[in-house]
Structure formats: structure tokens, C-alpha cells
TrEMBL record, chain A:
GO biological process: tetrahydrofolate metabolic process
Pfam families: SoxD
Domain of life of the organism encoding this protein: Bacteria
Gene3D superfamilies referenced in this protein's UniProt entry, alphabetically: Folate-binding superfamily
Originating species: Yoonia sediminilitoris
UniProt protein name: Sarcosine oxidase subunit delta
GO molecular function: sarcosine oxidase activity
From TrEMBL, chain B:
Name under which the protein is recorded: Sarcosine oxidase subunit gamma
Pfam families: SoxG (PF04268)
Transmembrane segments: none
Domain of life: Bacteria
Species of provenance: Yoonia sediminilitoris
InterPro entries per the UniProt record, alphabetical: SoxG (IPR007375), TrmE/GcvT-like (IPR027266)
Length: 109, 189
């Protein structure tokens, strides 16, 4: 069972209170971008075994979207943070580095 | 005007923990910037303080529940809803906000008795240990299959709200949980 801390409510929410929203930090390119960029945005995903960044919605709680950093292999949660950010905050990256030295995910490391 | 009736029409399941329809309850959903000074002022005229995150603030027969970073639920006597809405509307004039009477869209159920915590703990994925869930806290979650929110009164009784259409389900679920006894008894049997 996955339990994630909702950064808006400040409570630990059970997986059954949440709705999964797929990969976090997807970038949609604007006008004049190419087909390949649009294809990447729509279809290409990281699907890692290990460190992953995801979108979750506190569906039965506050209803807000937030982001979570966790390990897909062990279900260990490194931290959750606001969805109003384009990349993980430094304290989340530091928490991952402490547990998984040398981690990499997309352009992040 | 039609006669308003609560969804559960006064149902009571008596036991060590009693589950009871709380009857008609005025409820107003408020959505806006919760740090707005005008909101604070409007609530103050009703004797209510803006609750802290995850809390309920009470004053007599009125209360404000924290529902999300931009949402409050105002509880007032059923007959006072129109007046309270008018106060809010006057106080928030010219601002981006929403205030809606949702009294008839919801049901309010009381859970009262020595193991009221256990009755809810069996149904919702919430840590109800006395060190974790205390009087004055509000939690939005799900109860079995349905969305619900509850808070604890100072006397240890719980108050739970759910949508009107699923009130019978919530009541039956709570009554069954109460009838089955406290968690320790369930484990032993
Ligand atoms: Zn939340």
C-alpha cells in the first residue's frame, strides 16, 4: 500500500484516497514546435526501475494535484511537493541523492 | 415553499455507539483566497475565525471547516443559511469567490459512544489513534465506497458529512461497524 503526504492538506493520504496522474514534469512545446516534440510530449515516458517522478491527485481529500518522488522498485517515497514547479525542489533531489547516489531521470540527476 | 427533510429522515441506530441522523443542517461552500482580509472580516461578523489547515473553528451553533487550500465549509443552523449567505456576499463584494448553499445536497450523521473512533477507523484509511486524530481536526477521505468528511467534537463524538444520495449507504455502513463492536473485539473474534 502506497501512502503519500499531501503537501496541501499536510496529511498522509492512503493510495485509495489518491488518483494517479502519470509522469511528472512533462514539457509541452508551443507554436512552431515539431512533430517529434509533440510525439515526445504525448507518448514518450521514462518508465524507470528505480527513481521516478509522478503526478498524484488527492482525489478524496483537497482535490489538488501534487508531485511525488519515489522508487518504483521498492515503493520507497523520497518526498512530495507542489505541482506548481517545473522541476523537483533541491531538498527532494538531496533526499534522493542520499538514498540513491548517482541517480538519473530524464535530464535530471 | 416545500417542506425540507433530511435524507435520513431522523434515522437512529442505537447501541454502545449510536449512529444518528443530525437532521437538517445549513451548509455553505465557500471558495476563495482564504488569506483575503475581506473573508476574515465577513466571517468575523458571524463570530467565526478562519480555521487553520485541517481544522474546524466553532462558535456556538456555527462552524467553519477547512476543506482545501481554497475552500471552506460553513456550518450554520438550517434557517440561517440565507442570512449567512447574504453576509458573505456583502463582505466579499467585488472579489473572485464562490458561496453556495449546499445544505440539501448533503447529509450530516452523528457517531456518539465510547468506541466512536473504532467505528470510523474500520471504514476510512485514516489514522484515528488518539495521538494522531484529535478534537478540532477535519479530514476529507472516503468511507467504504463513498466520499465523506468528518471531524471530532470536544466530547469525543464524531460528526460526518456525505452526499445526500449516498446517505443511506453511509448510515448503514456506520451502523454495521458500530454493531460489530470495537476493533479489539473484531480481532479477537
Ligand atoms: Zn490534500
Amino acid at each position: 500500500m502506497l501512502i503519500l503526504h499531501c503537501p496541501y492538506c499536510g496529511v498522509d493520504a492512503d493510495e485509495t484516497d489518491l488518483h494517479a496522474g502519470g509522469e511528472a514534469h512533462l514539457k509541452r512545446f508551443g507554436p512552431d514546435s515539431g512533430d517529434e516534440e509533440f510525439e515526445n510530449y504525448l507518448f514518450m515516458r521514462e518508465n524507470p526501475k528505480g527513481v521516478h517522478f509522478e503526478r498524484w491527485r488527492h482525489a478524496y481529500g483537497c482535490g489538488k494535484w501534487f508531485l511525488a518522488a519515489r522508487c518504483t522498485a521498492t515503493l520507497e517515497v523520497f518526498g512530495t511537493y507542489s505541482a506548481q514547479t517545473t522541476e523537483p525542489p533541491q531538498d527532494i533531489k538531496d533526499a534522493i541523492s542520499a538514498k540513491r547516489p548517482g541517480w538519473a531521470w530524464g535530464d535530471l540527476s | 415553499m416545500s417542506d425540507a427533510v433530511s435524507a435520513l429522515q431522523g434515522r437512529v441506530a442505537t447501541g454502545d455507539v449510536t449512529i444518528a441522523d443530525a437532521g437538517l443542517q445549513g451548509m455553505i461552500t465557500l471558495r476563495c483566497d482564504l488569506s483575503a482580509k475581506s473573508l476574515k472580516a465577513a466571517c468575523k461578523t458571524m463570530g467565526l475565525a478562519i480555521p487553520e489547515r485541517g481544522q474546524i473553528s466553532r462558535s456556538g451553533d456555527k462552524a467553519l471547516c477547512w476543506m482545501s487550500p481554497d475552500e471552506l465549509l460553513m456550518l450554520v443552523p438550517y434557517a440561517d443559511v440565507a442570512g449567512s449567505l447574504a453576509s458573505v456576499e456583502q463582505g466579499m463584494k467585488g472579489q473572485h469567490y464562490l458561496a453556495e448553499n449546499v445544505s440539501d445536497a448533503r447529509a450530516l450523521i452523528h457517531i456518539d459512544g465510547p468506541f466512536a473512533r473504532d467505528v470510523i477507523a474500520k471504514l476510512a484509511p485514516v489514522d484515528l489513534h488518539p495521538d494522531s486524530f484529535k478534537p478540532g481536526m477535519v479530514r476529507r477521505t472516503h468511507l467504504g465506497q463513498i466520499a465523506a468528511a468528518f471531524w471530532m467534537r470536544d466530547d469525543g463524538a464524531f460528526e460526518l458529512i456525505c452526499f445526500r444520495s449516498v446517505a443511506a449507504y453511509a448510515f448503514d455502513l456506520l451502523a454495521a461497524s458500530a454493531k460489530a463492536g470495537p476493533v479489539s473485539d473484531v480481532r479477537a473474534s
